[in-house]
Here is the input.
Amino acid sequence: MTDIPASHPRRASLLARERLVEGVRAGIVSEAGLIAHGRGEAFDYLLGERTTDEAVAACRAAAALLLMARRPVMSVNGNVAALAAERAVALAAAVGGARASRGAAEGAMRLEVNLFHRTEGRVRLVADRLRAAGARDVLGEAPDARVPGLDHARAMCSSQGVGTADVVLIPLEDGDRAEALRRWGRTVIAVDLNPMSRTARAAHVTVVDELTRALPVLARETVALAGEPDGRLRAVKEGFDNAACLRAVLGRMVARVPELDLGPPC
Here is the structure.
């Protein structure tokens, strides 16, 4: 990995790029995943590369959904594994612990590998990356169900995971799969830096934030809400308006453009 000094103003972003490049070399990330990441970075510039109040509110609503879920599942692709395997595993543990403290019949949040550019070798590599980060039970290597309405490999899923889930967390997801999951009756939580994407608009709750910033906030909010009664959790969920949140984030991005210091005129 390139030696990036701690003083570099965009060190976190450059380190993320390095992790993705290493992921490509290791076979975890597809080359197309680099393009997708770069597109997301453009929106993060407009956010000021920070977690907004809207993102925190969305994480709180998402946490309420995960705590009330019957069987929550997090879908993991190559980019997620390369950028945030440890954070994904930590979130699953936080959700599982919070749900167990509430007496949920199935406390754990399962992790399931799902890839667009799918090969069995890549699935195994992503699953191994999650296991190396501490995951005990990773689904997706032996899919035995399909998401209705999808014709490509992303339709493949596990009957022990997405196939029987009621709430699905889909970070960095394609729009067609997000829409298909919603049509299938799943409650969808997305993490997506583009508030205009099909994924962001299809989800019930969209966290518009960079993945490695968003997952710890979601874990924190889940732990914070763990002791709340069901009525309070329902109020948090019902008080969240995803469309209004997306409009607010987009408005924040638009408002920031004229505020940027683009230097003196030529």
Observations:
- The chain has a mean pLDDT of 92.
